[in-house]
Amino acid sequence: MLSGLLIVLLPLILGYLVPLTHKGLLAGVNRAVNGAIYIILLLMGMGLAGLDNLSGQLSRLGGQTLLLFLITAACNLPALWWLSRRSALHTSGAPVVKNAPTSKLAAMGGSLLLVTVVVAGVLLGLIGKALAIEGLHSGAETLAEWVLYLLLALIGCQLRNSGMSLRQILLNRHGLAIAATVVASSLVAGLIAAPLMSLEWNEGLAMAAGFGWYSLSGILIGDQLGPLMGGVAFFNDLARELMAFILIPLVIHRATPLAIGYGGATSMDFTLPVIQQHGGVTCVPIAVVSGFILSLLSPPLILFLLSL
């Protein structure tokens, strides 16, 4: 188990050791990460199509996803609300922010595109099954594993070159408090959900440790626990982000830590423009620090928990 953990963590560590200063190279890494995510999610969809009794398995996927999402929300929301009541962090208005999306649908576009890629993978897998193409699904799983190693190396490189220094992270007490609250409440949710989902305790914790980073949690869980659980992790974390898009405008002035924290790891990228638009520029460094900590913690934590 531990050797498997090291094999998967090694690309992440190697990528983190690579400093990049050229803007063109950084842009190329970002494009490669996006491309690798699309490829793996397409292959994950093909893996789902290879499951026996697909309709029954998809029904189970939907039920498990809903269960995990509701339990996680029931733990995250009260914990973040409690933090909001105790915190001195409040927004004092919502200044206009350039290039922020003007509608929730525009902000959700990237998320919905990833869902479309998974569905396309399922359709391709079903076509391959109908044509009786031998080795299609096993080949897809092998290819997904190698692309995963590449993705982890690229993500390590992204985190190293994100511009966040250790000093900036450690001195932002609001970002640290939000991230710690999300981690603690999510892991409690994982422990509660594990027996209800017929999972071992460590597997339940791993399912909850994506912290909203759906494009990675689904891939890591799927590689270790199979495409069905990978799909549950993916859609659970995706649902978190979609709910965050709805919550942020509603609560950011009354419960700023809740609005920033509920998006989890996505507060440093996908939900950041919405946080900017409705909470103002003072929320940006806090959201980036919180999202960065959760993004840095999620991959090794998932892999460590699955190795137990």
Summarize the structure.
Helix content is 78%, strand content 0%. The chain is mostly helical and 308 residues long.
Describe it:
This protein is mostly helical and 308 residues long. 78% of the residues lie in helices and 0% in strands. Helix 3 runs antiparallel to helix 7 and helix 4 runs antiparallel to helix 10. The longest helix has 33 residues.
Q: What are the secondary-structure elements, in order, as H or E? A: HHHHHHHHHHHHH
Catalogue the unreliable spans.
Answer: 94-102
Instruction: State the end-to-end distance.
Output: 7 Å
The chain-level mean pLDDT equals 82
Task: Report the major sheet.
Answer: none
Helix content: over 70%
Shape by Cα distribution: globular
Total strand segments = 0
What's the Cα radius of gyration? Answer: 19 Å
Oligomer: single chain
Q: Approximately how much beta-strand content do the residues carry?
A: under 5%
**What structural class is derived from the secondary structure elements?**
mainly alpha
Helical stretch count?
13
